[in-house]
Amino acid sequence: MGSEENAVLIMVTAGGRNDAERLGEGLVVQHLAGHCSVVPMVHSFYYTDGLLQRQSEALLMIKTVSSRSNAVYEYLRKNHAYAVPEIYEVAIDGGSPPYLKWLAEQVGKRDSDR
C-alpha cells in the first residue's frame, strides 16, 4: 500500500447493536470499508448539561484505508441517529501484510467488480 492507502481503524458508538450493524453493513456494501465489526454492548459514561450520563451502546469498528476516511465520516454523519456521533480514527502502523492487501482491495472495488 502506498502512503495514502495506509490502513486505519475508525470507531463510532451507536445506540444499539441494530444501529451499529446497519451502519457497518452500509459502509461495506458501498466499499467505504473492507470490514466492520460490532461489539454489541459497551457501557459509556459522560456529562451532558452537567449531569453524569450512563448509557449502554454498541461499538462499531470500521477497517478501511486513509483515502476513504472522509467518505466514511460523511456516511456516518448522514446515517447516524446521534446529532453528534463519537467518531475517531486510529492509524494502523502494522499488521498482517496479506490482510492489509485484502483490505485495500475491498475498498477499491465497485459493484461491477463483484
User: What structural class do the secondary elements suggest?
Assistant: alpha+beta
Beta-strand share of residues:
35-45%
Question: How many structural units, i.e. domains?
Answer: 1
Give me the Rg, rounded: 15 Å
Would you write up a description of this structure?
- There is one protein chain.
- The chain has helices at residues 17-29, 69-79, 97-108; strands spanning 7-14, 35-48, 51-65, 87-91.
- It is elongated.
- It has three helices and four strands.
- It has one domain (3-107): 2-Layer Sandwich (Alpha-Beta Plaits).
- It starts with 6 loop residues before the first strand and ends in a 6-residue tail after the last helix.
Topology:
Layout (H helix, E strand, L loop, with lengths): L6 E8 L2 H13 L5 E14 L2 E15 L3 H11 L7 E5 L5 H12 L6
Compact overview of the structure:
With 114 residues, the protein is an alpha+beta fold. 32% of the residues lie in helices and 37% in strands.
List keywords for this structure.
37% strand; single chain; 114 residues; Alpha-Beta Plaits; 4 strands; alpha+beta
